[in-house]
Design a protein that fits this description.
4-stranded mixed beta sheet; 3 domains; alpha+beta; 475 residues; 23 helices; two-stranded antiparallel sheet
Length: 475
């Protein structure tokens, strides 16, 4: 369980703690207790002068809320945990889908159908089409397969032609391009809604007749076959690049809640001295519920009545208290492990965290940090996974600071991240009409003292998600 707590980020930890508090009444949040206490003080101060007299039974039973007598009246009482089946392991992952309010992409499309005249059968077909759209707004299901789906699932007999007709209606909905079966159709649907200027007509011609050449940036072939000038081609491409290749995603962004990165660590530079703090803003202070401890002490003092129900009540309370104490200790261990590991990383990469220059990053692998903090490599890996650190130069994913090492011609060890930074800078500064090939990039790196193979350059370029030279070419 401790390993799982190490792996989850700060925001997920908050939800995990709330879940534990809900499941274990012996665990409580001190901040909630303070708020309730303050609320009671305000209510008392602002109440009427005449108050109801207290019930003597309430005074004598301050722990009325936790009275177990209601659960011990029946001689046939069997604890619920004896009736439950546990077919899961303590190491199993439990994932919960978050609930998001607002209108979904598919609901937005369905609402637009009311503006079109469709009979009942056509509406069923349209709903089936919309239900088969993916998040990007594309229809991934074959029309022939939907004919069978409608027949078997909804007893609606239709034809391929009828579905195609309804699909053409769905393709008129917003956002433009929705309901397309491929990228080509998606872009053409968007262009057809624009004012049909010469540039737009040329763009339609290029996508309709020379889509394959366009995707591979074989502009010379397009100029020759389409018989248009280079300026006309450039204007047509300008129209195409304004289009949205994933119309569904754009709609999703308008209804989706903003997601913010919450850093797990914060590094401050105070006059040349680095200071590390853990972000505990979302981690509540926990303690064992005192009422449960008092109940356990009461049961221990009155040992005369040791019937089965009483023993099981004592066992239940003890299990909840032990679980609460264990969870509190696990949270503390998590915080300590996170701090120690991040402190080692900060010390190891001190030059970078002081200056913010990526070329100052040293080669660093999990083993280096594991040896410094005397922890297992898997533990360090869990700490680095999905954690963010806020620095004076931005917020970064912790695992991005880990990289392999390479030797320069002078024998100096450098980080592969440094090489990737140089590679990225070279590509960013290249002449886009004549982009640098992998061979040329390899030669540039060798001139700078980084003697690496061409296939390694290609691998780094792919890791940076930079396409090959031909696809980076611009007119």
């Amino acid at each position: 369980m401790l390993m799982k707590l190490l792996q989850i980020p700060t925001m997920a930890l908050e939800q995990r703690i709330k879940q534990e508090i809900e499941e274990n009444p012996a665990l409580e949040d001190l901040s909630d207790m303070e708020e309730n206490s303050q609320s009671e003080e305000i209510d008392t101060a602002g109440g009427d002068d005449e108050m109801d007299e207290p019930n003597p039974e309430d005074v004598n039973n301050p722990d009325e809320e936790f009275d177990l007598s209601d659960y011990m009246d029946d001689d046939e009482y069997i604890p619920s945990y004896k009736l439950s089946a546990n077919n899961t392991s303590s190491d199993d992952e439990h994932k919960q889908a978050p609930f998001v309010s607002g209108t979904s992409f598919h609901e937005f499309l369905m609402s637009q159908l009311g503006l079109h005249y469709l009979d009942e059968k056509q509406r069923i077909i349209a709903a089936t089409i919309i239900g088969n759209l993916d998040e990007s707004g594309y229809l991934q299901r074959e029309v022939a397969a939907m004919v069978d789906d409608l027949a078997f699932s909804q007893n609606v007999m239709t034809t391929r032609q009828e579905i195609e007709e309804v699909l053409s209606v769905v393709q008129t909905l917003d956002p433009p391009g929705v309901g397309a079966r491929n990228l080509k159709e998606c872009l053409l649907l968007q262009l057809q809604r624009l004012s049909q200027t010469q540039q737009v007509q040329n763009a339609i011609l290029i996508l309709d007749k020379y889509f394959d050449e366009f995707t591979k940036k074989h502009y010379d072939k397009i100029l020759k076959k389409a018989r248009i000038s280079e300026d006309e081609l450039k204007q047509a491409i300008d129209e195409i690049i304004k289009l949205n290749p994933k119309p569904g995603n754009s709609m999703d962004e308008t209804i989706r809640d903003n997601h913010y990165v919450v850093p797990d660590f914060i590094i401050h530079n105070k006059d040349g001295e680095l200071e590390l703090t853990l972000n505990n803003r979302h981690t509540p202070e926990l303690r064992v519920n005192r009422s449960y401890v008092d109940m356990l002490e009461t049961f221990s003092e009155n040992k005369g009545n040791n019937n089965a129900q009483r023993k099981e009540a004592v066992l239940f309370i003890k299990q909840k208290i032990d679980s609460a104490r264990w969870f509190i200790d696990a949270i503390r261990q998590r915080q300590n492990t996170l701090f120690v590991t991040m402190k080692a990383i900060m010390d190891y990469q001190q030059d970078y965290f002081l200056e913010g220059d990526e070329t100052l990053l040293k080669p660093m692998i999990l083993k280096d940090i594991a040896e410094m903090v005397q922890l297992d490599i898997s533990t360090v890996s869990r700490v680095a996974n999905s954690k963010y650190v806020q620095t004076p130069f931005g917020t970064f994913l912790l695992k991005s600071f880990f990289s392999e090492s390479m030797q320069t011609d002078s024998g100096e060890e450098v980080s592969t991240r440094e090489i990737k930074k140089i590679l990225s800078d070279c590509i960013e500064a290249e002449d886009k009409s004549k982009p640098l090939t992998d061979d040329q990039l390899t030669e540039i790196l060798r001139e700078k003292g980084y003697n690496i193979a061409r296939r390694t350059v290609a691998k780094y370029r792919e890791q940076l998600k930079i396409p090959v030279a031909r696809l980076r070419k611009e007119l």
